[in-house]
Amino acid sequence: MRVINSFVNDININSAFKKVFLWSGLQDAQIDEISKLLSKPKVCEKGSELSCSRMLGIVLSGTAKIMKSLGSGTDVVMRTLSASEVFGVASMFSETKSESLSKITAENDCTVLYISEELIYKLMQKYPTVSINYIKFLTGRIRFLNHRIDSFTAGSAEQKLLEYLVQNSHEDGEVVLNHSMSELAKRLNIGRSSLYRSLETLEKSGAIVRQKNCFFITPTE
Predict the structure, then answer these.
(1) pTM higher than 0.85
(2) Integer Cα distance of 77 and 84 in angstroms
(3) Domain 154-217 belongs to what architecture?
């Protein structure tokens, strides 16, 4: 793991750093002040473990995978993190020692900046906007998880599938699946046959339009 001596002068990494949700609403001068309080980013090799207890991680370049271990011993990719995205937010400020329920690994060589819980707390005290941004982020995650719970308790496979597609769609209604149908069936907790029947039902009803692994959700009034 190699340390970058000066990330402030690296245009791409500096740009990714400024896009981190924590600094939203801060002036450039304030973001520069914060960068000087932080430790140097680290270059992590492909396949290396990125999770670190009581540390907030910021991906500044490259990509990382959030993996969830299933009971069968296999790992499922829950999400891919790219530049300016953050991990470890929910594990901070816990009264008990918190261990990550997910494994985060470097999908390729990537640059990661770690911020300790203690320093995050100090930044929140000095820059109240950082606290507000942190709360907004957690609120968004709670809403997302509530939607996920609803999708897994929906009354039919079609409901589960449609809710999943809506939650993972872009503003234009496009959804691109980066995993197999077998993986999608696992995530929805339904059988593959039920998944294919649900896709056919939603297509026939006009709720979605499918082009291979790309879906378009039909706008509703």
Answers:
(1) no
(2) 19
(3) Orthogonal Bundle (1.10)
- Cα torsion 49, 115, 90, 111 to 10°: value is -40
CATH for 2-138 is 2.60.120.10
CB of 7 closer than 8 Å to CB of 60: yes
What parts of the chain have a pLDDT lower than 70?
1-9, 69-76, 96-101, 144-155, 171-172, 219-221
Residue type, 78: M
- Of 160, 142, 143, the closest CA to residue 151 belongs to 160
DSSP 3-state of 109: coil
Distance, in Å, from the CA atom of 158 to the CA atom of 202, rounded to the nearest integer, reads 7
Residue 15, SS3 per DSSP:
helix
Q: Are the C-beta atoms of residues 110 and 64 closer than 8 Å to each other?
A: yes
- Written as one letter, the residue type at 38 is L
Q: Which helix (H) or strand (E) holds 112?
A: strand 110-116
Cβ(74)–Cβ(186) below 8 Å: no
Order of strands, edge to edge, in the sheet holding 174-176?
Answer: 174-176, 214-217, 208-211
The whole-angstrom separation of Cα 52 and Cα 100 is 8
The residue ranges of every structural domain in the chain are 2-138, 154-217
